[in-house]
Amino acid sequence: MIFGYARVSIEEQNLDMQIDALTRFGVEKIYKEKMIGTRKDRPQLEELLKVLRSGDKIVVYKLDRISRSTKHLIELSELFNDLEVNFISITDSIDTSTAMGKFFFRTMASIAELERDIISERTKSGLQATRSRGKNGGRPAKKEDKVEMAVKLYKGKDYTIKQITAATGISKTSLYRYLDKEH
User: Fold this and answer.
1) CA–CA separation, 22 and 30 (whole Å)
2) In the annotation, is 9 catalytic?
3) Domain presence at residue 158
């Protein structure tokens, strides 16, 4: 069977472009997710991994849709190899059913991680330079009363995340980050 996996980082983003490409490729079942790639608990990806059988294919639009770290990509690659499942990334022209595809997959994963690390280093250096000039830099802090309200609404379990974010102006990602800090 040919499975597809599509993911966007935030709720407001759209999966249509990925779904269209996967459908054109001939994917029979698509697992869709709207959450940041660095999170380990991605229920749809976990469901997909549970149903894989020898001879299946997993197709993604782009490598960074299935993972954001080389380590995780390599773990997935090893899992796919053990299960005798082929992995295909449409825009990266990767098909692990070939030796060159396996090699290219690992190389592209390393390059993608290097690119993210360079961007992160550049951002940190820029923030450090800004702070050395007496400025804060970075994203502006959220108003504490809005954060407290969002956390309280979340814990009350009477409102959806969408309702909470609309009422407080706190994004879903920020809300989860503040909730994580409490634990």
Assistant:
1) 8
2) yes
3) yes
CB 32 within 8 A of CB 2: no
Same domain, 17 and 60: yes
Among residues of the chain, what percentage have pLDDT more than 90?
A: 31
Q: Tell me, rounded to whole angstroms, the distance of Cα 34 from its chain centroid.
A: 8
pLDDT, tens only, 14-49: 899 999 999 999 999 999 998 776 677 789 999 999
User: What's the pLDDT score for residue 144?
Assistant: 80
CB 134: neighbour CB atoms within 10 A?
6
Question: d(Cα 100, Cα 5) in Å, to the nearest integer?
Answer: 23
Examine the domain organization and report whether 79 and 39 are in the same domain: yes
52 — phi, psi (to 5°)? Answer: -65, 140
Cα–Cα distance, 143 to 84 (Å, whole number) = 51
User: pTM for the full model?
Assistant: 0.57
Which residue out of 9, 77, 171, 174 is catalytically annotated?
9
Domain boundary among 92, 112, 132: 112
Say how far residue 11 (Cα) sits from the centre of its chain. 12
* Mean of pLDDT values over 52-58: 95
C-alpha pair distances (Å), 55 with each of 1, 80, 86, 88: 7, 10, 7, 13
- Count of the separate structural domains present in the chain: 2
Distance between CA atoms of residues 174 and 182, nearest Å: 13
Range of the domain at 160: 144-182
